[in-house]
Write a structure and sequence with these properties.
160 residues, 86% helix, mainly alpha
Length: 160
């Protein structure tokens, strides 16, 4: 069971991080120079969030909960990882996911007017919120991969 859980956690990481990477790449490659491109880019971003990012995030949370409650992973690395996952989950569900349909609607409305100023203002906010995930996500991945002994755990290991 533990091997299967580790495998599912790996797949979850691929979905989650891969989806985020695809958002970054499509934004860098295509950008949002006009309303039609902005609409298509944010259609892709919204759908990939529903297909890749959110399921990957959900699977990661479920795997961590199983590790904590069923397998008794109680190390400080897991506690910090849990806090980071709460931050990433709140950021995704409260801020980033609701912004996607708004950006798509603003891009769609700009097709007739050509005015992307409201779109670009919200796009900047989305970019800042997305960037705020970088360090917590990196730390979460490092902690989950290496499971280091942290703080008091290191002292207990040396004295035993």
């Amino acid at each position: 069971m533990r091997i299967l859980l580790n495998f599912i956690n790996e797949i979850a990481g691929i979905l989650y991080v891969g989806g985020i990477a695809s958002h970054i790449v499509i934004g860098a490659v295509l950008g949002t120079p006009d309303a039609d491109t902005a609409y298509n880019v944010y259609t892709y971003k919204e759908l990939s969030a529903y297909i890749l990012i959110l399921p990957g995030l959900a699977l990661k949370v479920i795997c961590d909960l199983i590790l904590y409650f069923h397998y008794g992973e109680r190390g400080n690395w897991m506690k910090i990882k849990a806090v980071l996952m709460v931050f990433l989950t709140v950021n995704a569900f409260v801020f980033l996911v609701p912004i996607m349909p708004e950006l798509r609607a603003l891009a769609d409305a700009a097709k007739t007017t050509g005015d992307l100023s409201a779109f670009h203002a919200l796009e900047g906010k989305e970019a800042l919120i997305g960037m705020s995930n970088a360090i917590p996500l990196l730390l979460e991945l490092i902690l989950g991969s290496f499971k280091p002994k942290l703080f008091g755990e290191r002292i207990k290991t040396r004295t035993v």
